[in-house]
């Protein structure tokens, strides 16, 4: 392991530890926190979202923590040419949230696309002046996404979307952000921006909190192709709303390896370990115990068990989603209500920001 890798691992371990402490405090003092979290409307949610982030959101929601869920529609334009499905995807994501147990009727949960909140987007301008080009170029997640997208020409939105994300989080002064591991560099940038803004414009009366990441127990679910993050864009995901037959067909094609006997060895056999972990997330049994049960049953048995576990685990979610789908007017109203609240909150923050920057007439 190189020195840089050791340092990165050390930082990651410290983040995991902080996330654990935050977790403890959240259940004691839910009123101290405001959660900001979100997704890009590039498709429906997959099981990586469910285990990596969505379940955490539902849990916090159930603790009574105020939750803002941003649907980052502008961010779709960073690496996609097509925009014809954006609004449909916004509605489909909202269905996924509602089916997973997010319930906006509690008056503490708001779902909105960021394009509907001009006050939020306006924060991008001062924030862009607080970071350097070099910092934006170094972001490892952006680098990885550029590589995965296969794009030849990269637009400036791709390099600056982490700053936009800082606006998503800070416009409502979110102080807890449940995320997967890929988002940690972005969140660090948000913390830097909050700190620099406060230091420069409001040293005596800080405007922004430094938000903390909340990692789930499984901060990085790999795709069915084994080697990389499960992602909407990489054709390697099981969508939550897939039918049971679609789920079976996807899993049939999942990558395994040449050894028949099933063991749980994440380093040596990452593809097998990933499939075992997915079963474990559904059933609560340890991956080791599941591997021992399958043993000589090989990849075929492993895939069969995974298909059954996921289909069973998702059955209530899928049922509820189908029911909700018949009431799209309600879904639309949820989004418009969320946007209205986000604008109220954003207006108040922008007033403070304007005053701090000495731009108030
Ligand atoms: P896209 O491919 O369009 O970027 P995505 O699948 O990466 O889509 P995002 O909308 O970018 O999904 O991510 C939303 C949230 O879900 C983030 O907090 C991210 O960390 C989390 N997340 C996404 N994929 C995974 C995964 N495979 N494992 C754990 N968390 C994930
Ligand atoms: Mg992504």
Automatic annotation (TrEMBL):
CDD domains noted in UniProt: TrpRS_core
GO MF terms held by the record: ATP binding; tryptophan-tRNA ligase activity
Enzyme Commission no: 6.1.1.2
InterPro entries: aa-tRNA-synth_I_CS, aa-tRNA-synth_Ic, Rossmann-like_a/b/a_fold, Trp-tRNA-ligase, Trp-tRNA_synthetase
PROSITE patterns linked: AA_TRNA_LIGASE_I
Reactions that this protein is recorded to catalyse: tRNA(Trp) + L-tryptophan + ATP = L-tryptophyl-tRNA(Trp) + AMP + diphosphate + H(+)
Pfam families xrefs: tRNA-synt_1b
Gene Ontology CC terms: cytoplasm
Keywords: Aminoacyl-tRNA synthetase, ATP-binding, Ligase, Nucleotide-binding, Protein biosynthesis
GO biological process: tryptophanyl-tRNA aminoacylation
Membership in a protein family: Belongs to the class-I aminoacyl-tRNA synthetase family.
Protein name listed in UniProt: Tryptophan--tRNA ligase
Organism, as annotated: Paludibacter jiangxiensis
Record lineage: Bacteria, Pseudomonadati, Bacteroidota, Bacteroidia, Bacteroidales
């Amino acid at each position: 392991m190189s020195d840089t890798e050791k340092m990165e691992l050390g930082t990651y371990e410290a983040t995991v530890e902080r996330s654990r402490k935050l977790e403890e405090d959240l259940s004691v003092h839910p009123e101290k926190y405001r959660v900001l979290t979100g997704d890009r409307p590039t498709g429906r949610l997959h099981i990586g979202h469910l285990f990596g982030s969505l379940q955490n959101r539902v849990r916090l929601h159930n603790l009574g923590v105020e939750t803002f869920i941003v649907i980052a529609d502008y961010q779709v334009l960073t690496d996609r040419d097509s925009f014809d499905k954006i609004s449909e995807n916004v509605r489909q994501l909202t269905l996924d949230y509602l089916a997973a147990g997010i319930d906006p009727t509690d008056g503490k949960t708001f779902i909105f696309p960021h394009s509907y909140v001009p006050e939020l987007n306006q924060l991008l301008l001062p924030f862009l002046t607080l970071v350097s080009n070099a910092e934006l170029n170094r972001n490892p997640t952006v680098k990885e996404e550029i590589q995965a997208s296969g794009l030849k020409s990269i637009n400036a939105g791709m390099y600056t979307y982490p700053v936009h994300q800082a606006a998503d989080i800070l416009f409502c002064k979110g102080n807890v952000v449940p995320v997967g591991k890929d988002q940690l560099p972005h969140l660090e940038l948000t913390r830097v921006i909050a700190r620099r803004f406060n230091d420069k414009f409001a040293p005596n009366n800080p405007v922004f909190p430094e938000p903390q990441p909340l990692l789930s127990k499984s901060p990085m679910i790999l795709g069915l192709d084994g080697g990389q993050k499960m992602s909407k864009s990489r054709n390697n995901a099981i969508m939550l709303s897939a039918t049971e037959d679609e789920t079976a067909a996807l899993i049939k094609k999942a990558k395994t390896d040449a050894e028949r006997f099933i063991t749980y060895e994440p380093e040596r056999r990452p593809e097998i370990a990933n499939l075992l972990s997915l079963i474990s997330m559904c059933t609560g049994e340890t991956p080791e115990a599941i591997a021992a049960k399958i043993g000589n049953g090989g990849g075929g048995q492993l895939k069969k068990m995974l298909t059954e576990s996921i289909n069973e685990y998702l059955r209530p979610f899928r049922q509820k989603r189908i029911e909700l789908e018949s009431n799209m007017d309600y879904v639309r109203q949820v989004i418009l209500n969320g946007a209205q609240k986000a604008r109220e909150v954003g207006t108040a923050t922008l007033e403070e920001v304007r005053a701090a920057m000495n731009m108030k007439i």
